[in-house]
User: Fold this.
Amino acid sequence: MVHQQNQMLKERSEHLQKKVDAQEKILQEAQASMLRTEKLASLGMMAGGIAHEINNPLGGILTMVQLLLTEVEPDSSIYADLKEIESAALHSKAVVENLLKFARQSKESVMGPVNLSTVLEQVKKTTGAFVTNQGCGIEVCHRGWTATCFRRCEQVTTSIHESFHQCRTSHAGRR
Assistant:
């Protein structure tokens, strides 16, 4: 009888130990998740600060370049240089806007169904001013495709578009 009670206690102890181990694992996963969330929040704050620090002088550069463009003849060599500066500033502005979006952790970062046509339209708006002057752009076909995160789709699409532009620019110089 004592042996039987010892066996029952041993089984009960093992059962309880398994439950404790499972709860400890859940707790460790929750702590790791919370740590990742805190790191992302800190990264978002830092990105926002950097974006604002870059955005202020960038706005001044863009304003001055656009002002100079109105005062220079379009067929002068300086005009072409100013257009290059304007294009680079507009591209930088789009990068800064993406940093600010990341920092704000807006509703666009929430996972859920996303219409890819909407993502492409947003990328077209963001990069349109930069690429229009370069003779390339985005064509949006409305097929109703969906994905799970607007922000990630927008980043991927913007990267593809910028790579396309860089490739096109480098090939144009070889002609």
